[in-house]
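Example 5.3 — Apple domain-containing protein
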Amino acid sequence: MQPLYILLYPFIINILRYVQAVNCPPSFNYRMHNICAVLINRTVDFCTANTICHEMGLQYTLRTSLIGMNVTKIIGNLSKVPPTFTSINKLLGNENTLRKGWYVGVPGYASYITQGPDDELWHQTQPNQANELITVISGGKLHDVSQSRQFAGFLCERVGDSNDLLNRSGTEKFSATFPKRLNSFYFPDNQNEGCVNEVEVKTLIECAKLCKLEIRCRSIYYNNVIKKCIMILFVDSLISSNYRPQSKSIWVRYARPNW
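Solution (predicted structure tokens):
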């Protein structure tokens, strides 16, 4: 029989080659199935979780985000972790409570949408509420929760190298109907609000330019009467119903299909 260290040597070398190839930081403790991710057991709100993942990537000159559908590859290893945010969401509106039609906040996957039923991913009773538009892992299964009521840990996933951190020069397409045409721009209640950055600018073009220069920006809402620009960060979403009475003028919305 060959010594154990001889048998393990090729396996260890392959792991090291994989980690080196994908530039996976040593602190990222989930390195399997082509995933490089880290579990943060710090209880925060959804937008703070997104911010910490983004800033962690900047420390390593990487692009990182809350984990998306790659969670299907490792959720079986997460049965004992406390509630943990993912970027799987319906913050652009929930026409039903089925498992179809969920988006992710992963750069490069702006057009990705789940087709269901994903029985191995969801808890058998989930999703079950029309106003629960974000998700957490609990007991090794996915649960829908509302943004206002949930604080949790989170999984950050490496999704790009340093080149992906650069804002490309030149023109960029913005779409008023991506990834779908919205019947309303407003959340129906105060249970969700997205992650927003609000500024005042004179024109829609200025608003779009600010978004293009902001790597976190997914889409914009602009009101020409009150000159208000709302940048939607990390995960594309509707806006709070509190914006509805600010002006009788109509808000316009444009998203970044190539985000």
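Remark. The first strand starts at residue 37 and ends at 44.
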